[in-house]
Each structure stands twice: as C-alpha cells, then as structure tokens.
Specification:
Blueprint lengths: L1 H30 L24 H35 L41 E2 L2 E2 L4 H4 L7 E5 L8 H11 L5 E7 L2 E7 L12 E2 L1
Antiparallel strand pairs: 1-3, 2-6, 3-4, 4-5
Helix pairs in contact: 1-2
GO cellular component, one term: cytoplasm
Keywords: Chaperone, Coiled coil
Pfam family, one: Nas2_N
Length: 212
C-alpha cells in the first residue's frame, strides 16, 4: 500500500509540474515573441531611456513569475526524484517500461523511455530531468533549422544527460559531432519530443546558435 500511495503522490506531483511547465512556456512565448525583450534583454534603449515599444511593468512581472516557477519546478523535480528512488529501493527487480502519464505526457516518435507511469500496484516509475532550457535561439541557426524551439527543456543531448560538468560535457559532445546528426530529447509543453540536430558552422557564433 505504501508503494501504491507513493505512486499516486508522484503522479500528482508530475501533474503539478506539467502545469508549471505550461505556464513557463506561455511566459517564454510572450517574452520572446518578435520584437519582445526576451528573457534577459535590456528594458532601456541605446540612450538609457525606458523602451517605449514594450510594457515594462508586465515584462518585469513575467520575468519575476518565471523565476518563481523555475524554483517551484526544481523543488517538484527533486521531490519526484526522491519518490522514484524510494520506489526503486522498494522494487529493485521491477522492469522499466516506457509508459507516459495518460493526461500530461505522450510518447515520442523515438523509443524514449525517460518518463513512465503505470497504474498497477507493481509498476515502477522513472523520470529524466531536463538540465537546460533554450532561452534564446538565433534565426537561420543550426538549432532553429533542425527544430529546436524557445522554451524547449533539454533532457538529453547525444550522450549528455543531467549531471556534473554539464557545460564542458555539452561542449565536447558538440565538437565531437560537428557535421553529424545528434539525437536530442526535449520536454516541450509537457511532452517529450525527439529531434535530430547537426552541429555545424553557420554565419553566427558557435555550432548551434542557441543559448540555454
């Protein structure tokens, strides 16, 4: 019964996290629409005056709310992971399978088993954590051309997943795969999506053209 209760709690936490992700995506879309200030762009013009083309109080409120949501998302993810570890400890021999939350998740077109949930009492649960979010993306960049979007939360980039030394590992993965397609898994509007991104030179900086 304890395991069943823990699974029910974990499902509810995942639903709450999905709602937070939807709200975060809506804010990101507002801030990053054409002509918008982005997530960290200046709110003053070149002469130091407040920009007249944006609603500065609304932008500040959106950025503040986004920061709150990121913290809430982090806390929920940590709690979910704690529950998952307890479930794994209780059921060490359970076989992992790729089953999504029936309301807030859908299967990707690729064989990704990073998020799963089962209703049966003897099922197990595994979740992979997004380790970066696409805050800015340049037009005509490899990332944009290959399908990455603003607000995408990166779960896996090639062989890189959440962990230590992410920046150096990502940089090495990108350099090692220049000119070669890399499998990428992102969380987009609450659902896992599989992409293929090819790091390559372009007219801008780096080999991808996005900031995470």
């Amino acid at each position: 019964m304890v395991g069943t209760d823990l699974k029910v709690e974990t499902m509810k936490l995942m639903e709450r996290r999905g709602a937070i992700e939807s709200e975060m995506n809506a804010i990101i879309q507002r801030l990053c629409q054409p002509g918008g200030p982005g997530l960290s762009g200046n709110l003053v013009d070149s002469e130091g005056f407040p920009r007249a083309d944006i609603d500065i109080p609304t932008v500040r409120a959106d950025r503040h709310r986004l920061a709150e949501l990121k913290n809430d998302h982090k806390d929920l993810t940590e709690k979910i992971n704690q529950n998952i570890q307890l479930l794994h400890t209780a059921k060490p021999s359970s076989k992992t399978s790729a089953v999504m939350d029936s309301e807030n998740r859908k299967e990707t077109s690729q064989s990704v088993d990073h998020v799963q949930m089962r209703d049966t009492a003897d099922a197990d649960v595994t979740v992979k954590i997004p380790f970066a979010m696409v805050d800015e993306i340049s037009e005509a960049s490899p990332a944009a051309d290959d399908g990455l979007q603003l607000g995408d939360q990166i779960v896996k980039f090639g062989n890189v997943e959440a962990g230590d030394n992410l920046l150096s590992r990502l940089a090495s993965e990108v350099q090692a795969n220049q000119g070669h397609a890399v499998s990428v898994v992102v969380m987009r509007q609450g659902a896992l999506t599989g992409l293929s991104v090819t790091p390559r030179p372009w007219q801008g900086r780096g080999l991808l053209g996005y900031v995470g």
